[in-house]
Prior knowledge:
Elements: H1 2-8, H2 12-24, H3 29-43, H4 45-64, H5 69-87, H6 90-107, H7 117-126, H8 128-139, H9 144-179, H10 183-189, H11 195-211, H12 214-219, H13 222-239, H14 244-255, H15 257-273, H16 275-282
Amino acid sequence: MLALARWLMRGTPYAAGGAALATLVPWLFWLGTAIAALVTLRKGFAPALPVIIAAALPAGFWWAQGDVIPLASVLLVTLMAVILRERMRWSEALIVGALAAAVMVQLGIFIPPGGTQLMLEQLRESSAEVDRMLTEFANQGYDTQTLAAVVVGGVTGLVVLLAGIACLALARSWQAGLYNPGGFREEFHALRLTPRELAVLVVLGVVGMMLGAHALAMLGWIPLLVAGVALVHGFIGLKGMNGLWLVAFYVLLITTWPTILIVLLLGLIDTFANVRARLARSN
Length: 283
């Protein structure tokens, strides 16, 4: 894909056309988003604005059709790309991205156009067990529509945030491949949260729970998870281990909850212990 990135960076018309076409094609919005992020990272927000608009217009069309994810992804990734370019810190870009995604969830933009009532009715009709569970929640005094909105909005926001981080990483890897070979690997391996940044995430999560903004607590742990993933990458890189270890790691991360908890714990430990620096000194 580096050849594609090289062709796109020949000029703004190439990048704008590629971003618009990719975002217009169903399920290729991530490519258009990554193209807009690449130009933003390389040239800055103002010069990249035509490319961003070119990606946003087809995404707006999909929004009008009821699919909010493409446009939300373009806006979210562009915001993170601007922060990463200006601040040169992945951790700050991730925190801002998590906060922005949580705001989207709280605003309810990921709720289906017709609300959750139709979805709940379809679930009740498709499964007697689900119908029984929802009835029990209602008997206990819970508003099932509110619960469904929280779950649907939170899960969708989580997917959009993770996909946005992947798009930003793809754009950054393109940028490094074209202009700074090996730079992305070094940058990502060094990613870690500082104690102050971790404190910000904790405060946001607590305040969110107190104010009923549950999305902050649901998405606030993502930067710490990415920091833990970066630690694993850095450890494997420092030890010169085979790439199959990364494959096995991602399989476990995607399929098992305990692995996610372990990675979060590793990210937490690394915040205070700076594990990679210690490993580098020992080597």
